[in-house]
Amino acid sequence: MATWKHTEITIDGRFVKAQAPIIISASRSTDIPAFYADWFFDRLEKGYSAWTNPFNGVKSYVSYDKTRFIVFWSKNPYPLLDYLHILEERNIKCYIQYTLNDYESEKLEKVPSLEKRIETFKLLVERLGKGSVVWRFDPMILTDDISIDDLLAKVQNIGDKLKGYTEKLVFSYADIALYKKVKANLERSGIAYHEWTEEQMEIFAQKLSAMNRERGWNYTLSTCGEKIDISKYGIEHNRCIDGDLITRIAWKDQELMNFMKVKIEDVPAPSLFGDAEIPQDAILLPNNKFFISAHKKDNGQRDFCGCMSAKDVGEYNTCPHLCEYCYANTSKETALANWKCHANNPFAETITGK
Q1: Neighbours of 327 (CB within 10 A)
Q2: Looking at residues 235-250, what average pLDDT do you find?
Q3: Model-level pTM greater than 0.70?
Q4: Which of 159, 19, 63, 36 is nearest to 102 (CA)?
Q5: Among residues 352, 256, 267, which one has the least CA distance to residue 310?
Q6: 3 state SS of 244
């Protein structure tokens, strides 16, 4: 199911064709909330932004006229707190895929302190609601200095502090050999990484599942884009852009529900012989409502990605987090050069200002 229509916008007195997405991804390609929140909300106000296709270099336009929902991705979404009121005023709902790792001692990321990031997580939950901030520990990376038990200790520390603040933990195993950028970035920085074996994946999954149960977290555990089936440990394949979660958050938006082909129904009144009967696969909502999942996978994504279709408005080679395992930057130098271009022209129609 495509998540956009097409329209015409006016730029400098001329009409230009633009995509008009209903659902926006902001963004798999860069950290818009951390570094480009000012730019994004300025473009939202102006009604459009420009986007450069990473494969062919062709520039196209994105209109926000019909946007009803945004999925944010970030390692430091604190800047969003100053802008959430704009979404509320426009009746645009959102949720946040919050990558909250702990690689502080190893210096694999340039992010605020873990304590500060956990505080931000809780502040966002207080504004948006528990289901609207999803915890990601992504990727799980093995090195000479990080073992499986080290990773589990890191997860336990964060998991204990987020108890009561999130419903889900999403993770992936660092598949380094599959991604040339990741491999090149790690080797360029001299990081002694290890590839996960299937046996190690199983061991980690079993221990993580036991931890989730024993510590009373009761998080839904999910992997992102992983081929391995570890469902026997209660770990499912994730849908990061998830039609069901979108529905749970924005079910009152009839325009969005019509577009997604989701029917919101009333729970029948109890009969004389017992409780009300609803379909076995019904997903309950407030106010005695329910719906049946209409989620459809985006066939343009990887085989083991369960996301539905959404228009991503970010650009690669623009993220200054400079994570050592980055898949979105060709090099740190390129990312910093583009960040400087943005700083010189911060409200241009493209992220880079080019």
Answers
A1: 19
A2: 97
A3: yes
A4: 159
A5: 256
A6: helix
